[in-house]
Amino acid sequence: MSETPTSAPTVVYEIEPSELTASGSAVLRDLGYRAGRLRDEVELLNRDVNDHHRTVRPYDLSERASSKARKSVETLLDELSTERGMAWRDVARVAGVSRSAVRKWRAGDTPSPESRTRLALAAAFLDLLEQFPIEDPVGWLEVPILPGYSATAFDVFEAGHLDLLLDYAGQRVTAIEVLDVLDTSWRERFSSTFEVFTAPDGERSIRPKK
Amino acid sequence: MRITVCIPVRFCVCWAVYFIDAGEPTVYQREVFPNAPLEFVAAEVRFPYSPKLGRHESFDVLVDALRDVFPIPDREEQRERAVGPQGVQAAEPQVTYRLLAKDRLSSVTVGHSRLNLEVTDYQEYPEFRQLIRRSLEPLDTLGVVVGVERIGLRFIDEVRVPSVKAASDWRGYIADEFLGPLVLSDEGTVENLEGIVKMQTHAETHLVLRYAALDGAGVVGGGPLRRRKPPSSGPFFVIDTDSVWQGPEIMDFDVESVLDVFDQLHEPVGTIFHRTITDRLKNEVLRSNP
After folding, report:
1. pLDDT in the model for residue B27
2. Is A119 contained in some domain?
3. B186 Cβ partners below 8 Å, 6+ apart?
4. Residue of chain A minimizing CA distance to B220
5. Total tally of structural domains belonging to chain A
6. Is A29 in contact with B223 (Cβ distance < 8 A)?
7. Min CA distance, B211 vs chain A (Å)?
């Protein structure tokens, strides 16, 4: 049965949501009781869309990574460091190797297939982040995701939670939900002496706590 | 002249308070129910837009001041979307900061134009009032709030009775005055029933009562706070009381003055709740062990 009323001139009966206390609260699931059933249907549909999205997204990332993997190691390293601004220590982290290994690659050595795949995956992931849009994907990865704690999106990437990180970039999960997945003891493990602040240039940066 | 007499009527959980005001006795029986249906309480103070209030530096002050009560910080972005002839359009995201208690049963949220204290395990008003005070005092210290536009106090009850399977089964548990349209049950099956009452309680305060017979997991939940107990499914009756002050002019921001307003807003809420429910609901459900 349709929830929409029979056609009629616009008549406002209900108290506008903005007139209610805590109307914008993330805790209240349903302010419009009349839309309850319709909202349930929308939530179900939304859930289906999200499930589909989560199913499709890894394929998208995988396809992008495959495309990146066709490039030479030199091109991949150049893309990550020069174009994206990734520090060599972080290139080593995404590849799962030491910095000396990366130095050898730059000198002409050939990485293992696994390392090459990881480099390609990192390059593809950074491309995906730009679509959210995140203007500086590497910078975004490096800044702590929760004030007062040192855990960064890079830590989440390194732990292999790429899908979760994409949900976080798309603001479908909160920072705390991400950290809960990363490490249930994050409050102790990542307690930081640094704090996140907005620098004069408008970018989020870190500094020692006062 | 006003006389207050407290008489213990029932052991430890129930007392009756008689206010004798100018010879006009008004009985208000207040009771703390073991199986109370109260799922959400929010206190909100809205201010004129304060750019500094949403900044990280202000949030740091709140974090330090409330660390013993709300030690977990979180950052939220709320995006509003408008649907119009051009389709869905997104507005600029509004950043708010939320401080959570470790048990995630309470939090305080601060944005550019409002502060919200929200709890899902409300016990007593004096305790909640003290939390409001603790939340407001850092703002006073910051000096970034120039005045108060609106103060609201909202209580949301979700009444559940195991024997209720349909809207018509609420008879006997909810006061008949709020079930009037059930007389139409002869014409068909009533699936949902809702009502809204807005009334003026003082010169600058009003109260909005929304009530509804619904079905599902409840109207509270799905956010950063967790409920006291896992939500169940099935029919429930919502009693949503929003008591609000909104003056013709912006009030100066002063913690004690704001708390006085909250006291005034709290006054009618208990009476409204008791008048919505029946003694049968109290005896069979609310006074039973959860």
Report:
1. 53
2. no
3. none
4. A28
5. 1
6. yes
7. 9
pLDDT at A17: 59
Number of domains forming the structure of chain B: 3
- Find the mean pLDDT for residues A64-88: 88
Least confident of A2-6, A15-19, B33-37, B169-173: A2-6
Provide the shortest C-alpha distance from residue B275 to chain A (in Å).
22
Instruction: Tell if the pTM clears 0.90, that is, is over it.
Output: no
Do B206 and B252 belong to one domain? yes
Q: Is residue B80 helix, strand or coil?
A: coil
Residues of A with CB under 8 A from a CB of B: 13-15, 19-22, 24-31, 33-34, 36-37, 40, 146-148, 171, 174-176, 187, 195-198
Q: How far apart are CA A4 and CA B168, in angstroms?
A: 24
Residue in B78, B154, B225 closest to A24 by CB: B78
Same domain? B26 vs B53? no
Q: What gap in Å lies between CA B65 and CA B70, rounded to an integer?
A: 9
Residues in A touching B225 (Cβ below 8 Å): 27
For A137-161, write each residue's pLDDT tens digit. Answer: 888 888 888 877 888 999 999 888 8
Given a cut of 60, whether residue B148 has pLDDT beyond it is: yes
Surface-to-core class of residue B140, CB atoms within 10 Å of its CB (0-12 exposed, 13-18 middle, 19+ buried): middle
B44 contacts A22? CB cut-off 8 A: yes
What is the model's pLDDT at position B7?
35
Quick one: closest CA in A to B156, which residue? A28
Inter-chain touch A27–B76, beta carbons under 8 Å: no
Q: Which two tokens stand for residue A193?
A: 């002496």
Contact B222, A29 (CB under 8 A): yes
